[in-house]
Amino acid sequence: MSLKRVLVWYELLAIGVAGIIGSSWAYLNTTFYGDYGPGATVLGFAIATLIAFLVALCFAEMGTAISREGGEVAFVLPTLGIKGSFIVGWMFILAWLVATCSFYVAAFGYLLSWVIPQLHTIPIYEVAGWPVYLPALLIGILMNVAVFTLNYVGAKFAARTQFLMFVLLMICGGIIAVTALTRGSVSNFYPPFPEGANPLMNSIRFALLSLTYITGAELLTTLAEETKVKIMTFGYLIASCAVIAGGFYMTMMFAGSLFMPWSEAAKVAPRGTIDLLTMVNPGLGFIAWLASTLGMITSWIPGMMSMSRTVFALARAGLLPETFERLHPKYGTPTVALTFVLIVSTILGLLGRRAMIWFLDVGGVSIGVYWLLAALSLILTRRKYPELPRYFKAPAPYAVGGMAIILTLALILSGIIPGTDISLVWPYEYLILIGWVVLGIIIYPITSKRVKKLGFERVARNLLGEYYDLIYRKKA
Q: What residues contact residue 177 under an 8 Å CB cut-off, 6+ apart?
């Protein structure tokens, strides 16, 4: 049995771009204006998009040079070894587990409660002083099951659903932009920064915060064996997703600032563009809410899809139990891996709304780790395997890889060092991160017994497939 090559270019584009675009851009923008100013939000997203694009170039080159399921789990192996594959896969799972599926289990009911207030009734317990409401929790869990079902019945079905929602999301975004230009005023954007603030520092601070909003182009590399596009096209799709999504974010941040003076918007529109458009017309407010909901679901679907493929790839390498390699006989999907993601994300989602910020912050550090290792892999592979065919070549690879390493390292350090603008919050966020790392330290020696039994060649062949002979035979 093998995975099915069913994904075409426009479905991959929808997975990549809509997988990046989430939901909180629609209801947190006025908060961002109040904290940083609209100029810093637009410029900050521009800086974050540039950083994400540099990383996407690394993934595009490596994801086409070694185009295997699991993406970075496979392509870091020749340079960073089996431990490197485990670390990058383990941190990828954490990032997408907490920043998408678990986050959305908690957030979906919260978002729906704005139109169905009854969802925030029947409190059943508290987490850090915040109540968890039974109806909101149940609807989040049910949505997680629905996303699981979409992915379970095949990558093609999930991708078609993703594409339709992506088109609808773009239409909603277009309506928001046109309404802002016709009913708003550019004068409301000024002054673009709070009085007395340093524009550059505000923009950099927001860029570090917004980097978690721009992650997702790398999702495509985890689906490499399910694509049916030319390998060069695959590389261009990976590289372009971050730019397209970043452009969407910048447009929405600018558009949201045109409806009223941003200093007032932060006070009277706590739900961001949703409230701003509701003041213009309730129907338009619903469109903004729908865009936010669509953004949530279109991140949820590929998040679960890519995590399950990463679990599958780790199992194929012998780094997780063999049962996670199992594919459905009809649909060709890694059903056991999908079930694992469903269960763990649901358990974490039980932490409720209070944990949403924890999940995003921990996800940001985790993203930085696997971005860093992917960029390092690009440089090392260029040096160690210069003869390896590269169907998409990152321009100035050493400069691109070097800048990506420096910038992602700054992201990691800004998160784990106390006292920065985006430091993890003690004790909850540090405990989540430390707990996951400790769990990995415990699991790796256990699973490495299977790796030893299989032997390096078998593990490498399982991960690399046809690329094994290309890399190791030529080197020999």
A: 251, 252, 255
Q: Which two tokens stand for residue 335?
A: 């059903």
Query: What is the pairing mode between strands 130-133 and 123-127?
Result: antiparallel
From the list 87, 465, 154, the residue with the least C-alpha distance to 310 is 87
Number of other residues whose CB lies within 10 A of the CB of residue 293: 20
The distance of Cα 353 from the centroid of its chain, to the nearest Å, equals 19
- As a CATH number, domain 9-475 is 1.20.1740.10
Structure token digits, residue 162 = 């993703």
111-164 pLDDT tens trace:
999 999 999 999 999 998 999 999 999 999 999 999 999 999 999 999 999 999
Q: Per residue, what are the HEC states of the chain? A: CCCCCCECHHHHHHHHHHHHCCCCHHHHHHHHHHHHCHHHHHHHHHHHHHHHHHHHHHHHHHHHHCCCCCCHHHHCHHHHHHHHHHHHHHHHHHHHHHHHHHHHHHHHHHHHCCCCHHHCCCEEEEECCEEEEHHHHHHHHHHHHHHHHHHHCCHHHHHHHHHHHHHHHHHHHHHHHHHHHHHCCHHHHCCCCCCCCCHHHHHHHHHHHHHHHHCCHHHHHHHHHHECCCHHHHHHHHHHHHHHHHHHHHHHHHHHCCCCCHHHHHHHCCCCHHHHHHHHCHHHHHHHHHHHHHHHHHHHHHHHHHHHHHHHHHHHCCCCCHHHHCCCCCCCCCHHHHHHHHHHHHHHHCCCCCHHHHHHHHHHHHHHHHHHHHHHHHHHHHHHCCCCCCCCCCCCHHHHHHHHHHHHHHHHHHHHCCCCCCCCCCCHHHHHHHHHHHHHHHHHHHHHHHHHHHCHHHHHHHHHCCHHHHHHHHHC
C-alpha to C-alpha distance for 15 and 159, rounded to whole angstroms: 7
Look at residue 476 and tell me whether its pLDDT is greater than 60.
Answer: no
Over the stretch 317-338, which tens digit does the pLDDT of each residue have?
999 999 999 999 999 999 999 9
Band of residue 448 on the pLDDT scale cut at 50, 70, 90: confident
Query: What is the distance between the alpha carbons of residues 329 and 351, in angstroms, rounded to a whole number?
Result: 35
| CA–CA distances in Å: residue 160 to residues 230, 292, 333, 383 | 19, 20, 15, 40
Amino acid found at 21: I
- Identify the band that residue 1 occupies on the pLDDT scale cut at 50, 70 and 90: low
The tens digit of pLDDT for each residue in 88-119 reads 999 999 999 998 999 999 999 999 999 999 99
Torsion of CA 172, 180, 288, 106, to 10 degrees: 120
